[in-house]
Amino acid sequence: MTTLKAKLHDDLNAAIKERDELRSSTLRLTLTAITKEEVAGTEKRTLSDDEVQKVIAREAKKRREAAEAFAQGGRAESAEREKAEGEVLAAYLPKQLGDDELNAIVAQAVEEAKAAGAEGPRAMGAVMKIVNPKVAGLAEGGRVAAAVKKTLAGG
């Protein structure tokens, strides 16, 4: 069974052969980030697929944030490039939850938290504790928090 990191390497080599500059540079940067993570700390280690996925998710988030910043700064070309790199990375991540699925999970968590006696502002933390493990890697933290706030506010 190939690891996610090995798949990234294989895809990078294919992208280089195909002269796909966007994919090869995106994958190269991502593999660098993975290697950096592996040598961080006291001893070198190999990341598990889950850990590699977290690095990819972090890289994809950086691309999204950069794309927004470029778009706001009127640099459409740079924004498009960042978006395209984000899409390359998204292919290696689990499919993100749709709004309906996320809201359903949040609504259920709010009920659980209320049943456990969590109300008011304190409920936010309790609900997040229930929701986070269920949506880990499937929805971005900001989206989750927004959905929880909205549901708690009775939206």
Q: What is the strand and helix layout of this fold?
A:
Blueprint: H1 4-17, H2 21-39, H3 49-72, H4 76-90, H5 99-115, H6 121-135, H7 141-152
Helix pairs in contact: 1-2, 2-3, 2-4, 3-4, 5-6, 5-7, 6-7
Helical amount: over 70%
Secondary structure tally: strands: 0
Gyration radius from CA atoms, angstroms: 19 Å
Q: What best-fitting shape do the alpha-carbon axes yield?
A: globular
Strand content: under 5%
How confident is the prediction overall: mean pLDDT? 87
| Main beta-sheet annotation | none
Sequence stretches where pLDDT stays below 50 over 5 or more residues:
none
Task: Characterise this structure.
- By secondary structure, the protein is an all-alpha fold.
- Helix content is 75%, strand content 0%.
- Helix 2 (21-39) crosses helix 3 (49-72), helix 2 crosses helix 4 and helix 6 (121-135) packs across helix 7.
- The longest helix is centred in the middle third of the chain and has 24 residues, at 49-72.
- It is globular.
- The relative contact order is 0.09.
- The mean pLDDT is 87.
